[in-house]
Amino acid sequence: MFDVVVIGAGVSGSASARELSRYDLKVCVVEMEEDVCCGTSKANSAIVHAGYDAANGSLMAKLNVEGSEMMEELSKELDFHYKRNGSLVVCVHEEEKENLQVLYERGVKNGVKDLRIIDREELVKLEPNISDNAVAALYAPTAAIVCPFGMNIAMAENAAVNGVEFRFDTKVTGFEKKDGYWVVQTNKGDIETKYVVNAAGVYADVFHNMVSEKKIHITPRRGDYCLLDRSVEGHVTHTIFQLPSKYGKGVLVTPTVHGNTLVGPTAIDIEDKDGTNTTQQGIDELTLKAGETVKNLPMRQVITSFAGLRAHEDGHEFIIEELEDAKGFIDCSGIESPGLSSAPAIGKMVADIIKNLTGAKEKDNFIATRKGILDPKTLNKEEYAALIKEKPEYGNIICRCEMITEGEIMDAINRPLGAKSLDGVKRRTRAGMGRCQAGFCSPRTIEILARERGVDPSEITKSGGESKIIVGINKDSL
After folding, report:
1. How far is CA 440 from CA 50, 118, 434, 436, 468, in A?
2. Residue whose C-alpha is closest to residue 351's, from 18, 73, 3
3. pTM across the whole model
């Protein structure tokens, strides 16, 4: 019997699990994929929004601003990449400058600090590659960028170290309410728990509607992205948004914390909750719209494209509450943008709901910090030489594009909630994220995964399930 079962190991579920691990509670996270950070949390804009966009008085607005203010300290505690680079909402039509004022006033009411509207002269000084048509912008210096994988994994690892159990490849199929507790039915057997936290992303409406008469509906909203090579670094330094207008919502252009440039997303409503395929139409739209705010953008330097799904609830609002007609079932639903920015505050709100329901007390031995994977590139020459002498694996480069060593990959596999697949290694170390997109390093990474996990190389997958890399081998002929 668990005190709490959290459904979903994305950023909202992991943030909730980490905050719940502060308390004397028995907590389990169930995830249908093979790892944390396999859904919306792995495919998004990686932006920490300042908080001027959400409607005044909404839960979105409140948690966005709170989460943004918590993020920098959290990144230090849990050792993931974060950079406060500021954002610019760019207006390219003189007659729509008044819409910047609307955004500014909304942001001020939401509690966003240091917002101001700047003219073209200052805008060009901040961003020399801004469009020649740009006339003004809303400048939000508190906006930031983050590594979404690093953040999600860090919170999950910290939760695990503090006693939270994670069960992967575990798909929830139903619920049964018994006297004072829930039975969570899964493909791997039943799990009994006093409370359920529904943080299932685009599937959250499915689980909500299984237990409540008050139905909700979530539309998967696909967003296509293009990622540019690090040779483009510096083309923009702030996150460049387009002003929503009669000409369309537009796309953003932003640096990433690792030196790439990200362009996207589109916003296409679909029915398939697993529909993360990109389309030529979507990529063409990105290329066209990005040029409206940033000139000379070198789209020939795209190294990969991908798509993510936003869990768009019909009311366009976060739903974080215990259900009135399903006591003990707590929704954490409709978490679309600015969900990543809000995640620290979302986790705290979920934990506060559970604390108030249970009267749980804080642990005396909660571990608040976590150390990430050592990056040898942060060491000086003498320190690196000493590291290689102690651990020779750190002198063996596996991923040449990103200069990732065998030692880093071994750490990624053997730490709490360690990587089990190529994508798991990639999200933890960036091995395979460079220009060749794993064309060179995959065979060696497979060897290391098989060796460290004690399995045959043919068992290693790209991303869990049936995504095996080595197939069709007749072992009797070897």
Report:
1. 39, 46, 10, 7, 17
2. 18
3. 0.96
Question: Which residues fall within 8 angstroms of residue 291, CB to CB, at 6 or more apart?
Answer: 131, 297
* Cβ within 8 Å of residue 136, ≥6 positions away: 90, 91, 97, 100, 117, 118, 119, 120, 123
Rounded Cα–Cα distance for residues 89 and 254 (Å): 12
Could you give the percent of the chain with pLDDT greater than 90?
A: 96
- Model confidence at 474, pLDDT cuts 50, 70, 90, reads low
State how far the Cα of 216 lies from the Cα of 144, in Å rounded to an integer.
Answer: 32
- CB contact set of 351 (below 8 Å; sequence gap of 6+): 16, 19, 20, 22, 23
Query: Is the four-CA dihedral 72, 76, 77, 81 of positive or negative sign?
Result: positive
Question: What is the DSSP track for 99-117?
Answer: HHHHHHHHHHHHT-SS-EE
**Tokens representing 457?**
């190389």
pLDDT at 84 over 90: yes
Whether the bond into 338 is cis, omega within 30 of 0? yes
Active site residues: 49
Describe the crossing of helices 339-358 and 59-78 by its angle, rounded to 10 degrees. 90
